[in-house]
């Protein structure tokens, strides 16, 4: 497995390419994180019910999680630059439509298509990095990319709180401005090249896996459990199709890679822990302590330290200890972070919260980027889009699982505070299992 040399250097053109692609993953992260802060204002102005408001979030999850594998393979077959530019333009149009929405159904539709665009955009951008950069420079690029992506999630709540003070529609319009800048820069920064893989598009596989993913995301995010049966049935049909077709959408042999599997399982559990914790933290700070949305966002700002440490400290640690030990250490820090949050009570202030968010920022700095490297290391260029799609699918399913899990556990408490304390056990357990999974890779490497 590759390690990262701290001496990797990029040319000016390579920095331009990397910054454009980092901008896109930052855009995706911040777009997701900002939405939670704006939901109460959206509900008040558009008169949406609580059930309809939930679909503002779930529609994005369905589009993103359901079509991610299809998006990754489309990038490989149709051309990564072409797919990236087209779906970035789609993002601009439908994020703008969301900001202009006067009815709930328009907003929900816009969020679904925005999630769909991210499902194609994200694996295309990641595969451009993994096929353009090689050796230590590739690992360094992925650490920068991972750090910026994680920063989008952690800074999104702060930015969302600030924009919501101005007006919730700016939560949609601000990403349009950023996306337009990235789109213009991409036209020059992303080189035109013959980056397509050979083969035919597996339509039957695409229909079954996309349908199965959509139903599974629906089952996890909304508790529509009959959809779980349908999703499993479609995925079983997908496996049969992929075994028989000459040009499969997902070459099942890729799943025999131990590092890839461990990275995806760890990523799923990390996302479940983080998004579950984020929901509990926001509800606790606002509903129990009475903090405003802006105060909540600022309190969680320290998590954004990962954007500084990921491209600076993490490469040195990876060069010294290797990828799997660094990931394991990061996941153990996440476990410690969530464990500290079990002590919440009615009298907490910012300095009681600070150790939790600081450790979480350190955890993301150590785990997020190296997981991306492990999940794509050793994969052929023709399947880099697929590998990126698998990883981002794991993150998306993890997010849906985390939100559903903490919601279910919190309902067991007799009071909101008791429910939130119980709910934090879910992120603690998820992060710990992720650390144990990643540690298997560390043990195999040292054996």
UniProtKB/TrEMBL annotation:
The chain crosses the membrane at residues 17-40, 52-71, 83-102, 108-130, 142-164, 170-189, 201-218, 224-241, 261-285, 291-309, 321-342, 348-369, 390-413, 419-438. The keyword Nucleotidyltransferase does not apply. GO terms for cellular component: plasma membrane. Keywords: Cell membrane, Membrane, Transmembrane, Transmembrane helix, Transport. It is found in: Cell membrane. The keyword Transmembrane applies. This is Putative transporter.
């Amino acid at each position: 497995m590759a390690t990262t040399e701290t001496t990797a250097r990029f040319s000016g053109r390579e920095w331009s390419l990397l910054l454009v692609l980092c901008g896109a993953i930052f855009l995706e992260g911040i777009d997701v994180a900002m939405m939670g802060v704006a939901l109460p204002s959206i509900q008040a102005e558009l008169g949406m019910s609580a059930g309809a408001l939930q679909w503002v979030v779930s529609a994005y999850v369905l589009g993103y999680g359901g079509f991610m594998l299809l998006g990754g393979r489309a990038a490989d077959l149709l051309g990564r630059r072409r797919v990236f530019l087209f779906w970035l333009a789609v993002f601009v149009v439908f994020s703008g439509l969301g900001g202009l929405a006067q009815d709930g159904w328009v907003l929900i539709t816009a969020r679904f298509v925005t999630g769909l665009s991210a499902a194609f955009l994200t694996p295309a951008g990641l595969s451009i990095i993994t096929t353009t950069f090689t050796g230590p420079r590739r690992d360094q690029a992925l650490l920068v990319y991972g750090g910026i992506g994680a920063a989008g999630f952690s800074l999104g709540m702060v930015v969302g709180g600030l924009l919501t003070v101005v007006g919730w529609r700016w939560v949609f319009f601000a990403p349009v401005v950023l996306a337009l800048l990235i789109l213009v820069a991409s036209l020059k920064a992303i080189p035109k090249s013959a980056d397509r893989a050979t083969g035919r598009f597996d339509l039957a596989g695409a229909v079954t896996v996309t349908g199965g993913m959509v139903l599974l995301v629906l089952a996890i995010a909304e508790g529509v459990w009959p959809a779980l049966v349908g999703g499993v049935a479609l995925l079983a049909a997908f496996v049969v199709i992929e075994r028989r077709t000459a040009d499969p959408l997902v070459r099942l042999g890729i799943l025999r890679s131990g590092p890839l599997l461990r990275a995806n399982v760890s990523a799923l559990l990390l996302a479940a822990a983080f998004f579950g914790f984020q929901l509990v933290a926001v509800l606790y700070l606002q509903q129990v302590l009475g903090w405003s949305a802006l105060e909540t966002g600022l309190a969680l700002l320290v998590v954004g330290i990962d954007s500084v440490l990921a491209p600076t400290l993490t490469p040195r640690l990876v060069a010294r200890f290797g990828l799997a030990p660094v990931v394991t250490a990061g996941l153990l820090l996440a476990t410690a972070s969530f464990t500290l949050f079990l002590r919440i009570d009615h009298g907490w202030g910012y300095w009681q919260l600070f150790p939790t968010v600081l450790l979480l920022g350190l955890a993301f700095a150590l785990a997020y980027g190296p997981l991306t490297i492990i999940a794509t290391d050793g994969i052929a260029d023709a399947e880099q889009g697929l590998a990126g799609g698998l990883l981002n699918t794991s993150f998306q399913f993890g997010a849906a699982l985390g939100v559903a899990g903490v919601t279910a556990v919190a309902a067991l408490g007799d009071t909101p505070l008791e429910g939130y304390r119980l709910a934090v056990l879910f992120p603690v357990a998820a992060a710990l299992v992720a650390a144990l999974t990643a540690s298997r890779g560390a043990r195999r490497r040292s054996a």
